[in-house]
Protein: Carbonic anhydrase
Amino acid sequence: METARRRRAGAAGPAFASAILVIFAFSCSSRGPAFTWTILVIFAFLVRNQQWCQRLDRPTVASNALFNYKDKDPTGPDKWAKLNKGWAACGDGKKQCPIDICKVEINKDMGPLDQAYKSSACTLENRGHDFILQWKGGNGKLTIEKKDYVLQQVHWHVPSEHTVNGTRFDMELHMVHEDSSKARAVISVLYSTKEAGDPDKT
Ligand SMILES: *[C@@H]1O[C@H](CO)[C@@H](O)[C@H](O)[C@H]1NC(C)=O
Structure:
């Protein structure tokens, strides 16, 4: 909202004011060249200022709000590759999210998830497409095949990022862990707000 407001003001405000000033500068040219030059310098500043406004508006973190998980939406998964140059892999990548989970194979060698977390200070941020809780320096660990992965952050997608046999869930939690070489282990939990026996259950 803030970004959109600033972009409108950045594009229309200085351009409109500049046009008025140029007309004013030339209509007052009888006041002498110094006056006209002063007005033109103000005009140049406004043009520069307008560029500055646009630079400020280039999507950074706010770009997260520019995509969503709604199927067949103008900013939905099948359009992601075209929304941003850096997102081309969303169109031709082989292992891209979101994944529709159809076949489940349990890796018996993996054993149970060995989790050991603790309470510690964290920051909560609304990134537009999700909410994220982050721990500076991590929090506790997950051990898989004797290798430790430290919990870095957890975030929730609404609705779920991944689907099961085409069904999208109400919410999805991702618990993102990293080992010392930055290799990741992510635990995903799918939420359904419909209770068993709910007549709305699909
Ligand atoms: C998806 O549907 C197929 C066919 O009905 C079924 O065999 C499979 O177990 C389902 N997958 C999941 C993850 O529920």
